[in-house]
Structure formats: structure tokens, C-alpha cells
Design a protein that fits this description.
Blueprint: H1 2-10, H2 13-16, H3 22-48, H4 51-58, H5 61-72, H6 79-95, H7 101-109, H8 122-147, H9 153-168, H10 179-204, H11 209-215, H12 218-231, H13 237-256
Helix pairs in contact: 1-9, 1-10, 3-8, 3-9, 4-8, 5-8, 5-11, 6-13, 9-10, 11-13, 12-13
């Protein structure tokens, strides 16, 4: 569905003249793989473990970016970035307070994978998938920052979605025919996969990878807001405190980072 929206923009003559080389298409294909790995492992994390475990492990991404950015992007890791990551992580932990970092570490490192009679517990699989999703998301931010300097964002978004669609096409199910389901697909294609992605790629070109990663912590704030607005799931005081810390982290990295 998103490709239908994007083709209208992409087919403009000015955009067609900026088609990348074979190497450029390979770079966009790598972005598509990272996006697919991120989405699939995140989905499997929710399938095998709790929401808190999945979300908390996924948000290792800013730490991954903080480590990789000085190497690949020559960005300085500042005290403000460290303070912002710490503050945002604390806020997220308060929101997802039923998760225990010690339990996560214990589940990962106490499973004897060499024993023939031992299998990974579902929680362990979910936690590992969440970590893999965070690693892929961190690598994706680094790659996007690198390629944003070279390729037109319209072309990147169009072809990355095309490659993802081709990769998952063999596993796709039948197209829903109900009007409500089709409306959801149209909304996702137009807002999430098109508008939001263009805005994201436009922003990443003009700021550092660390800021992009840390500002991603706003996502759980959005989940709380829309949960209250649409599902009437109102946050308690601790969730509001965690949200305030995450917003503070964003302020720190924008003003001081």
C-alpha cells in the first residue's frame, strides 16, 4: 500500500534523474535487510516474552549507536549524551517497571546451550530477539546517517519498501477484503510507511545519530498517549514520572548534546 503512495512522488522526472548506481541500490538493499531483521525480531520478541522484556531489550539501540557513531561517523560521545541515555533508560525502566534487568541477564546466561537435554525457555528466546532487534535498529540508524549524505530520501524510502515487500512476498497471506481492515492498511501505508518515514529520513540528515537514537525513546510516550486517547488506558503516576524523565532526556540531548 505504501508503494502506491510513494510511486506518485517517485515518478516525478526530477527524482528519476537521481537514481543511484548499482552500488547505491546495494546499499539500499542492506537498509531493507536491517529493517526486516529489526521488525521480525521485534515481533518475535513480543511473541515469546512479555511486552516489558521486548521493549526494554529493544531500546539497547541508543547504546549501540553511542558505541558505533564515533567509529563510523566520527561523532563525539559527549557527557550530555551519556546523561541523556541514562535518564531515558531510567524513565523507560519506570514505565516498564515489571521488568528486571537482572532477570534478563540471568535468563540469557544460565541456559546451558551445550547440553543436549536443555532448550531455550520462551522468555530467553524473546529476550534474545529483543536484543537482536535493538542491535539491528542501532545499525540501521548508523547506516541511514551514512547514506543520507549521498542518496535522495524519496528514492531510498521507495526502494527500501520495494525490497522489503519482495523479501516478504513469499510469506504473505491473502489480502483482507473487509472495509475496516483495508482502511487500516491504507492508514499504515500513508502515515507510517510513507509520511513518518520521509520525516524521519529528513530529520536524520540534519542531526547526529546519537540524537536520533535517544529521541527514539519518545516512542513509549506516544504509546501511553494514544493508549489513553484511543483505548482509554490511562497511565498511573509512575508512568507519568517515567515519561517526564524521557522528555527530559530529549531536552538534554537537544540543548546540550
Amino acid at each position: 500500500m505504501s508503494l502506491a503512495f510513494q510511486s506518485v512522488i517517485f515518478l516525478r522526472p526530477a527524482i528519476r534523474k537521481e537514481l543511484p548506481s548499482i552500488r547505491g541500490f546495494f546499499h539500499i538493499f542492506l537498509l531493507s535487510l536491517l529493517i526486516l531483521i529489526n521488525m521480525l525480531t521485534y515481533f518475535y520478541a513480543f511473541s515469546y516474552t512479555s511486552i516489558s522484556n521486548a521493549v526494554f531489550t529493544h531500546y539497547i539501540a541508543p547504546v549501540v549507536v553511542a558505541v558505533m557513531a564515533p567509529i563510523f561517523l566520527k561523532e563525539r560521545f559527549t557527557i550530555a549524551a551519556l546523561l541523556s541515555i541514562t535518564t531515558a533508560s531510567l524513565g523507560l525502566w519506570i514505565i516498564m517497571r515489571d521488568v528486571s534487568v537482572l532477570d534478563i541477564v540471568n535468563q540469557i546466561f544460565t541456559v546451558d546451550v551445550n547440553s543436549s537435554g536443555t532448550r531455550f525457555r520462551p522468555d530467553t528466546i524473546g529476550i534474545l530477539c529483543g536484543l537482536a532487534s535493538g542491535l539491528a535498529y542501532g545499525a540501521l540508524i548508523i547506516a541511514l546517517k551514512l547514506y543520507s549524505r549521498t542518496y535522495n530520501k524519496y528514492i531510498v524510502v521507495f526502494f527500501q519498501n520495494l525490497f522489503v515487500a519482495l523479501l516478504i512476498l513469499p510469506f504473505a497471506g491473502p489480502i483482507p477484503r473487509e472495509a475496516g481492515s483495508l482502511l487500516i492498511f491504507v492508514a499504515i501505508g500513508g502515515l507510517h510507511s510513507t509520511l513518518a518515514t520521509y520525516l524521519y529520513y529528513s530529520g536524520i540528515k540534519h542531526t547526529t545519530a546519537n540524537k536520533v537514537a535517544i529521541l527514539g525513546y519518545i516512542e513509549p510516550i506516544g504509546a501511553i498517549f494514544f493508549g489513553a486517547l484511543i483505548l482509554s488506558e490511562y497511565p498511573d503516576a509512575l508512568s507519568l514520572l517515567g515519561g517526564a524523565l524521557i522528555i527530559s532526556a530529549g531536552y538534554i540531548i537537544i540543548k546540550k548534546g
